[in-house]
Each structure stands twice: as C-alpha cells, then as structure tokens.
C-alpha cells in the first residue's frame, strides 16, 4: 500500500471522528424545550415555581464571585475565608440565642420560686 493511500485513510478517519462525533451528539441531544415537555405536569410546575429561586441563587453566586475577585487573594482562598466567617457568625448567633434562652429560664425559675 502506498503512503498516499495510508494518508487518505487517516484523513478519512480523522474527518469521521472530528465531524461525525459532534454531528451525532447534535442529532441525539434533545433541546431544553423537549426535555421540559417530557416532564410530568407536577415536575413542570415545580420547575416553574423554582425558577425564580434558582435565578436568585445564580445571581448571588455571581455577586460573590465578583466580590471575591476584587481581593488580591485567589478566589478559592477568599471564598474559604468568607465561608469560615459566615460559619463563625452562625455559631456566635446560636451561642447568643442559647445564652438568652438560659437567662430567660433562670428568670422564670426565679419568678416561680419567688411567687410561692
């Protein structure tokens, strides 16, 4: 077999893979509208109801990324720092609520003991 024939076969295989693969994917992949129509009515309604929340979550995510990118630290380091700070705030709030509940319980006990 000549080299020209071998190169022709290689070119044909390359074209089949390079053009045929994406063409097959395009042909068999359904559009978003087709997928949505295949959902059951309950799923369609839930999807429509959750759309605003998903959009809001996405906008919050992009906002946070923009905020993290303003820092001179890498984005993942800034995100880790922000999540650590948020966790500390939550723990601090929980501790404050716990101490307030304990104080209220103590006041109620003192009031109940003093009223007897």
What does this 3D model show about the protein?
This protein has 116 residues and is mainly alpha-helical. The protein has a domain at 1-30. It has helices spanning 3-28, 32-38, 41-70, 75-114. Helix 3 (41-70) crosses helix 4.
Describe the SSE topology:
Layout (H helix, E strand, L loop, with lengths): L2 H26 L3 H7 L2 H30 L4 H40 L2
Q: State the distance separating the first and last CA atoms.
A: 110 Å
**In percent, how helical is the residue content?**
over 70%
Give the helix/strand class: mainly alpha
Quantity of strands, as a count: 0
Largest sheet: none
Mean pLDDT: 91
Order of helices and strands: HHHH
What's the total helix number?
A: 4
What shape does the CA trace take? elongated
What is Rg? 31 Å
Strand-residue proportion: under 5%
Could you list the spans in which at least 5 consecutive residues all have pLDDT below 50?
none
Protein name: Assembly factor cbp4
Which terms summarize this structure?
116 residues, Assembly factor cbp4, 4 helices, 89% helix, mainly alpha
